[in-house]
């Protein structure tokens, strides 16, 4: 089992999860985070930290596609091991539907 970040993170990117990860398996894109599924140790400490409820175990229904999204972008985006600033309008995006199709960016975070 591994944990993955799903579409609820897009444009929210709260990053509370990053602070508690013991193995630094989060990677940062322009408008979301992902978890590298091969680095995740399945501890689950990140899941309850996410205000957007955007982290799920890969055993949940319909999460298979997110394992691949997380793997793909974890290999392209920079690793993040400290909490950064969340977008000022993160709360406004928390419950927006179809964020992946309408708002996902495949670009890495600007450093």
Give structural notes.
With 111 residues, the chain is α+β, with helices and mostly antiparallel strands. Helix content is 23%, strand content 13%. The chain has four helices and five strands; from the N terminus they run βαβββαβαα. The chain has helices at residues 16-20, 64-74, 90-93, 99-103, and strands at 3-5, 26-28, 33-35, 55-57, 79-80. Strands 3-2-5 form a three-stranded antiparallel sheet, covered by helices on one side. A two-stranded antiparallel ribbon has the order 1-4. The protein is globular.
Give a brief description.
By secondary structure, the protein is an alpha+beta fold.
**Strand residue percentage:** 5-15%
Helix segment count?
Answer: 4
Which class best fits the helix and strand makeup?
Answer: alpha+beta
* Multimer state: single chain
Low-confidence stretches: none
